[in-house]
């Protein structure tokens, strides 16, 4: 499968699946209470940590290793399963303590049921890694999309039957089951009990540092929900988590699309510095060209979007959504920067960098926490900029490029996005109907940004035209 085809299928897999879940989430937000989403946000903290422990280290180690064997695959599989069971037992044991800590009587029951998905999600880890190595995102699309449709449809039905928070728990477990079954069948790989201590050591040498670095990042991403859940009410946490999920849809998915495709390609060319930097620069341009206007446009249209799709009872999350758009605007770029360290096998440096970044992040969080949710979101903006600089700095030392030059390459897209946002903001002030504001804002934003890009002939614009003209043909990076 060609690079462009892989990006397209990866994009379809992420955005079709997440798009279905996004729409389902909008429907459920109208049927369930903000406090229900707040409770799920607390559960997600522990699930995200467990999932990172299971998935991140050994899955990426398999992708990075060029001479992988069946023994490596079997070792990774049984190691993941063992870790999953161990983590579930830990969650089972601490569930009553967490229920008492948050003063939520049924939290332990929710956690024990929700945690079953940890074991289920460990089953297709190797199968998914094999599909990614082959750049077979078409099979991953079929699996995740069907899982999203089935789990989403059933969850909406249950929501109308007033099942409350159980709707969200059942939705997640159903998605995990269907997705796991389809991924395992698509990969046509089935484990054998043929493990090796030597293979385990090799996987750990790469995966160990990667795992710890990913774990630190996951804890940071979910720490806000954990702290807000304790310091504020479940309703406030619901506002925050809903805003974060809405912003995550474009930001995290775009980052994931490029990372999933670019990472195995860069791994195969890790010894060719010029090719790696060429792929990196082009990917950086395209990501910035797409993400910047999306995030700024979403921030401008936050209030009419929430009023129209979530109803006015969710309006307190609008300001949080606007701030998080700015905070998460650079996340896809940071994700791409991290890939450059991993393909060189410099997981040790990536780990050190994560420790420094998360130390700074915790200080910012502790400082902003007493001042409210808006201050916490502003703190995330500062952290995002610091992380962007640090990620770029370490890469510049390894690959020998000028950090200022790379950052300046992003400035045209940022300036154009700000101009677009300003024009849209001014124009929609003269409109009184919410739906009209949203429609005009989106159409005007696309027109203005595309016009600016064409007039100034941005490189990423030319790349986009080339991609559109050569869809499903091989791009020779």
Automatic annotation (TrEMBL):
**What UniProt keywords apply to this chain's record, in alphabetical order?**
Cell membrane, Membrane, Transmembrane, Transmembrane helix
Report the membrane topology from the UniProt record: Multi-pass membrane protein
Its subcellular locations are:
Cell membrane
Q: Which InterPro entries match?
A: Poly_Biosynth_Transport
Q: What is its main location?
A: membrane
Q: Which domain of life is it from?
A: Bacteria
Q: Where is the signal peptide?
A: none
Instruction: Name a single GO cellular component.
Output: plasma membrane
Which chain regions cross the lipid bilayer?
39-63, 75-101, 113-131, 143-160, 166-183, 203-227, 247-266, 286-306, 318-338, 359-390, 410-428, 435-452
Q: Which CDD domains match?
A: MATE_tuaB_like
PANTHER family with a match to the protein in the record? LIPOPOLYSACCHARIDE BIOSYNTHESIS PROTEIN WZXC (PTHR30250:SF10), PST FAMILY PREDICTED COLANIC ACID TRANSPORTER (PTHR30250)
Q: Spell out the family assignment given in the record's similarity comment.
A: Belongs to the polysaccharide synthase family.
Q: What is this protein called?
A: Uncharacterized protein
């Amino acid at each position: 499968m060609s690079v462009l085809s892989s990006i397209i299928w990866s994009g379809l897999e992420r955005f079709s699946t997440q798009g279905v879940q996004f729409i389902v989430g909008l429907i459920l937000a109208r049927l369930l209470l903000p406090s229900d989403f707040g409770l799920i946000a607390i559960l997600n903290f522990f699930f995200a940590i467990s999932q990172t422990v299971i998935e991140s280290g050994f899955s990426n180690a398999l992708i990075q290793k060029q001479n992988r064997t069946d023994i490596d695959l079997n070792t990774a599989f049984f190691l993941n399963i063992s870790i999953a069971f161990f983590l579930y037992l830990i969650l089972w044991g601490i569930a009553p303590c967490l229920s008492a800590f948050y003063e939520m009587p049924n939290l332990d029951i929710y956690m024990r049921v929700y945690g079953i998905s940890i074991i289920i999600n460990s089953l297709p880890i190797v199968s998914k890694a094999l599909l990614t190595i082959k750049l077979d995102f078409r099979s991953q699309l079929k699996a995740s999309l069907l899982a999203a449709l089935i789990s989403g449809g059933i969850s909406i039905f249950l929501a109308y039957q007033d099942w409350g928070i159980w709707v969200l728990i059942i939705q997640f477990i159903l998605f995990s089951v269907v997705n796991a079954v389809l991924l395992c069948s698509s990969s046509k790989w089935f484990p054998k009990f043929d493990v090796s201590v030597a293979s385990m050591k090799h996987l750990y040498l790469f995966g160990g540092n990667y795992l710890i670095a990913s774990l630190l990042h996951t804890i940071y991403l979910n720490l806000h929900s954990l702290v807000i859940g304790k310091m504020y009410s479940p309703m406030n946490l619901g506002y925050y988590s809903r805003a974060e999920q809405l912003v995550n849809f474009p930001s995290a998915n775009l980052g994931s699309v490029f990372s999933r495709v670019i990472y195995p390609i860069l791994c195969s060319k890790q010894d060719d510095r010029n090719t790696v930097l060429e792929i990196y620069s082009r990917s950086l341009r395209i990501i910035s060209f797409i993400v910047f206007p999306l995030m700024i446009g979403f921030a401008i249209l936050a209030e009419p979007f929430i009023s129209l799709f979530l109803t006015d009872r969710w309006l307190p999350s609008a300001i949080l959504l606007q701030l998080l758009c700015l905070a998460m605007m650079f996340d896809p770029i940071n994700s791409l920067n991290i890939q450059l360290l991993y393909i060189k096998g410099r997981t040790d440096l990536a780990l050190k960098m994560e420790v420094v970044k998360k130390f700074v992040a915790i200080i910012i969080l502790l400082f902003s926490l007493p001042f409210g949710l808006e201050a916490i979101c502003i703190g995330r903006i500062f952290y995002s900029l610091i992380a962007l600089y640090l990620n770029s700095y370490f890469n510049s030392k390894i690959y020998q490029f000028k950090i200022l030059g790379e950052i300046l390459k992003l400035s045209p897209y940022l300036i154009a996005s700000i101009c677009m946002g300003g024009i849209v903001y001014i124009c929609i002030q003269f409109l009184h109907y919410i739906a009209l504001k949203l429609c005009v804002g989106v159409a005007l934003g696309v027109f203005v940004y595309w016009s600016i890009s064409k007039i100034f002939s941005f490189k990423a614009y030319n790349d986009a035209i080339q991609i559109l003209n050569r869809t499903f043909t091989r791009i020779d990076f």
